[in-house]
Write a structure and sequence with these properties.
Two copies of one chain form a homodimer. Chain A is of the alpha/beta class. Helices cover 35% and strands 18% of the residues of chain A. Chain A has eight helices and eight strands; from the N terminus they run E-H-E-H-E-H-E-H-E-E-H-E-H-E-H-H. An eight-stranded parallel beta sheet of chain A has the order 1-8-7-6-5-4-3-2. In chain A, helix 2 links the parallel strand 2 and strand 3. Chain A is globular and about 45 Å long. Chains A and B meet through helix 1 and helix 2 of A and helix 1 and helix 2 of B.
C-alpha cells in the first residue's frame, strides 16, 4: 500500500505547527522536508534549526531530502535535528558510499535521490545499501512545477530493478504529483508520493491529504 | 535613541507567527533574519520561502543578514521576499561595490557586516554607499555564543569613523548581546542591537523585549 509525504516547501512557514497538524489529521504518513542551500539548487529553504523546532511538535517520521552540496558535512546535524530518513544526491558528493554508511551509523534510513537526467546506473554498486530511492520528476529547486512525463519510464525501470533484486527499498517520487496522477504512479509501483503545492496549496489541507490517502489506498 | 532587533535564529520555528507577535507587543523595532547557507558559515538556517511567509504576518521592518557565499546570486530573491535591509559580507563576495548598488536598486537599504577579524579598512571605498554597518561580536553561524570583548575597540573605532565623516549610517552589533551589556553598547554609540537567545530564550519573550527597550531608551 502506497504512502503520502506532504512537502513542507509549499506550506505557510509562519504557522508550521498548525500546517503539520492539518496533514496529521488527514492521515499523512511522512513529513517531507526539502533542504536547499543555494549551491546544489538555486534556492535556500531551511536547515537543522527549523527541523529541530518541528521535531518538538509532531511524531510523524521526517523524510529529509538534502539538496545541498557535499552533504557529508551535515549528516550529524540533520540526524540530531530529528531526521528519520536522510536522502542525498549522487550528483552532490564524491563519496556516495561513505556518506550512505555515515547516515546509517546514526540508526536512521538512507536514501539516494536522482535528478531527472541522472541514469539508474549510478545505483549499480550502492543499491543494496539503500532504504529508499527518490526519483525526481521535476528539476529540484522550487515547488509548483509540472511532472516530467518522460520520467514514467524511469519509474518503471527502477521498479523492475528493485523487484528483480528482491530488495526492500522504498520507491519515492517527488515533483508535479497531483490527485490526478497519483493512481497512475502507485499503479507503476511507487511506494511513497511526495506532494507539495497540491496539498498545502489546497483550501482544505486536511481534506486534500485525506483525498490522496483514499486514492492511493485503493 | 538605540533600537532593538530580536533575531529569529533562537525562536521556535514551529510557531513563528506567534513568536513575532510577542516581540511586536514588546516594542521591537526590527526583525533580524539570519540567513545561512552552510558554505559561508557551517549552519543552514532559512531563506526566501520562509521570509516570504513571514512578510504576510507582520509589518515590522525585516533586517536580513546574508551569511551566504556570493550573495549577488540572491539579491533579487530576498528583496522580493520582503527584506527592508539586506546586509552582506565583504568576505563572501569579490564584487562588494556592485552588489551594494544592486541591493539599493530594489529601493531597500544596503548593509555590510564584518566578521570579528575583518578590519575596518575594507570600508574605506564603500562606506559612503552604505545605510548600515554590522559589527559581528561573535563568529557567525550559531546562536547563544558569548560576546568577544576585544570587539569593544572596533565598535568605538567605527563610531568615530562614521561621526568624523558625518555619515548617516546605522551602527549595528550582533552576537552575545544581553540585558547586562546593552547599556554599555549603546553608550559606545551602537544604534541597533541584535539579540537572539536573550530574547527568544526568555520565559516571557514580550516582557524581555520590553526590558531591552527600557534599557536602551535611557
Amino acid at each position: 500500500m502506497a504512502k503520502i509525504a506532504p512537502s513542507l516547501l509549499s506550506a505557510d512557514f509562519a504557522n508550521l505547527s498548525e500546517e503539520i497538524k492539518k496533514i496529521e489529521k488527514g492521515g499523512a504518513d511522512y513529513l517531507h522536508l526539502d533542504v536547499m542551500d543555494g549551491i546544489f539548487v538555486s534556492n535556500i529553504t531551511f536547515g537543522p534549526p527549523v527541523i529541530k523546532s518541528l521535531r518538538k511538535v509532531t511524531d510523524m517520521p521526517f523524510d529529509v531530502h538534502l539538496m545541498i552540496d557535499k552533504p557529508e558535512r551535515f549528516i550529524k546535524n540533520f540526524a540530531e535535528a530529528g531526521a528519520d530518513i536522510l536522502t542525498i544526491h549522487p550528483e552532490a558528493t564524491i563519496h556516495l558510499h561513505k556518506t550512505i554508511q555515515e547516515i546509517k551509523s546514526f540508526g536512521i534510513k538512507a536514501g539516494v535521490s536522482l535528478n531527472p537526467s541522472t541514469d539508474l546506473s549510478v545505483l549499480n554498486y550502492i543499491i543494496e545499501d539503500l532504504d529508499l530511492i527518490l526519483i525526481m520528476t521535476v528539476n529540484p529547486g522550487f515547488g509548483g512545477q509540472g511532472f516530467i512525463e518522460t520520467m514514467m519510464d524511469k519509474i518503471k525501470d527502477l521498479r523492475n530493478l528493485i523487484d528483480q533484486k528482491g530488495l526492500d527499498i522504498i520507491l519515492e517520487v517527488d515533483g508535479g504529483v497531483k490527485l490526478s496522477n497519483a493512481k497512475k504512479l502507485t499503479d507503476l509501483g511507487v511506494d511513497l508520493l511526495v506532494a507539495g503545492s497540491e496539498v498545502f496549496g489546497a483550501e482544505d489541507i486536511e481534506q486534500r491529504t485525506r483525498e490522496f490517502k483514499l486514492i492511493i489506498d485503493k
